[in-house]
Amino acid sequence: MWAAGENQGNFLGRISIRRNQVVSMEGDLEDLEFFQKKISEQFSDLLRSSEKEPHDNLPPLPLPHGNHNQQQQSTEPDAAVVETVPAEAFLSIAWLRKLLDAFLCCEAEFKAVLLMGRDPSHIVRSPLDRLIPEMLDRTVKALDICNAITHGVEAIRHAQKQAEIAVLALQHKPFTEGQIRRARKALASLLTSVVVDEKEGKATERSWSFGRRTSSSTASKGRHLSNFRSLSWSVSKNWSAAKQVQAISTNLYPPRGGESTGLAMTVYIMSVVLAFVMWSLVAAIPCQERTGLGTHIPVPRQSGWAQTMCGLQEKIADEWKKKEKKGSSGLMEEVVRVEKLSQSLMELLANFQFPMEQEREAEVAAQATELAETCRKMEEGLGPLQQQIREVFHRIVRSRAEVLDMLDQASKASSAHNV
Known about the structure:
Elements: H1 2-50, H2 93-115, H3 128-169, H4 177-199, H5 221-226, H6 241-249, H7 263-284, H8 307-325, H9 333-348, H10 358-418
Helix pairs in contact: 1-2, 1-7, 1-8, 2-7, 2-10, 3-4, 3-6, 3-7, 3-10, 4-9, 6-7, 9-10
């Protein structure tokens, strides 16, 4: 009787384990479907916003006030300027902030699926024992890109300040030779600063604020976080933002078979989202060495959740190909606008004799007013954008630390079981 009872207990135990596994699989499938829906919703909203104002349809520069063949312009200097860039124009500061919001929402949903209420032993089973370390390695590279993007925003701020100097110089009419000289000097500095800054690192050595996790790591969450407290860095001249993005997307393949309906698929989707967002940021904001960035990251076209992301990728890639040929410093809408206006003003301020003819003077004033409006938008938007990049950086840091702690718990539990 005792042997029979033992066998019955073992049998019931196996049935219980199997039932828990089935429940867990069903829960993972529900979580996956919910997560895919959230991804699709977030990027659908971004795709709708992207259709508002492509770069090629930027409003034309103001016509000379002296052109009598055109309708008389408004006497209000800012009346036609306010609408030059819609609030959420594609790749504008507002749109990029919306992209980062989408990433933060997706990341929060992903962490809830991966960690909340889950037995640590679940994330060390195959294929997660391979996929999660790969994901953690990608997050390290993403932190590196966040650092570079922060540096790029500072470069844009410098360009903005130069534009503001030019605007101030052209504030009063009739223009004097000193005003024109100051404006031209500021505009020349603007047109070269971001491009030079993109190609040349400001330091020759790189300072890493983090390291890779080893299999024997037993560090606490506090120690993990202490490695990621600062966005400041120095970068070597051979560092490449494009290669960093390519490294994030390396070996990014969808799970197959039974793995495609569970937690492994959720990890894969979040890795794709991470790669896409980092690629978009590098395309929009000046970064060191972006040659080859036009190469697409592997977003699965056949997957329903990825359709809108594919649409966005096509649009960004098309814009990049056009701008890359012209040596543009980035795809950010406001930067494109400032570059275009600055180049036009440089042409208008060249090769003329004082006093400047009235028609040309009116055209310079109109474009200076538009440049001032663009600078205002940059002043309002760049600070919040930079703060949001910091938030993404620290969110990745915290989530990475939590995953590492869960892996440590699973390792300790496994060691205790084997003793």
